[in-house]
Amino acid sequence: MTPPRRTRRESGSRGRREGRFAEAVAAVWLMLKGYQILGFRLKTPQGEIDLLARKGRTLAVVEVKRRATVDLALASIQSAQRERLLRAGRTLAARRAPLRQLALRLDLIALAPGRLPRHVPNIFNDLGHG
């Protein structure tokens, strides 16, 4: 007998729980590295920012990707996301006076089962996308 299939609602609920868990793991990882977490799942007109973090004079818009392997997580971020996420970060920084003078960058936290998180600061520069 085959197990019953999950409904879309059940799958979506599970995905949201896993996403929130991945973001929490990423936040802890960043805090261990000295970052201050300023927000989770921040909504802007340009879209949602998974995490907003600060370290020194840097404001990091952090995209969290959880996949079967770290390599798949690293490959899953697309260059088309860059401008959207950076615009979203600029929008949030403009709303908060203490953040306006910080250097803005886009970071990635790649997560995979059984592996330590991998933090890639300034993801597009590291991948050669400018």
Distance between the termini: 53 Å
Q: Which bin fits the share of residues in helices?
A: 40-55%
Q: Could you name the ranges where pLDDT drops below 50 across 5 or more consecutive residues?
A: 126-130
* Beta-strand residue percentage: 25-35%
Number of DSSP helical runs:
4
CATH architecture field: 3-Layer(aba) Sandwich
CATH domain class: Alpha Beta
Number of strands: 5
Question: Mind describing the biggest β-sheet?
Answer: 5 strands, mixed
Going across the major beta sheet, what is the strand order?
Answer: 1-2-3-4-5
- The CATH topology annotation reads as Trna Endonuclease, Chain: A, domain 1
Order of helices and strands: HEEEHHEEH
* Average pLDDT figure: 87
Structural class: alpha+beta
Question: Quick gist of this model?
Answer:
With about 130 residues, the protein is an alpha+beta fold. It has four helices and five strands; from the N terminus they run αβββααββα. Strands 1-2-3-4-5 form a five-stranded mixed β-sheet, sandwiched between helices.
What does this protein structure show overall?
A five-stranded mixed beta sheet has the order 1-2-3-4-5, with helices on both faces. The chain is globular. A hairpin with a 2-residue loop joins strand 1 (36-44) and strand 2. The chain is 40% helix and 30% strand. It has 130 residues and is α+β, with helices and mostly antiparallel strands. The chain has one domain: Trna Endonuclease, Chain: A, domain 1 (3-Layer(aba) Sandwich), CATH 3.40.1350.
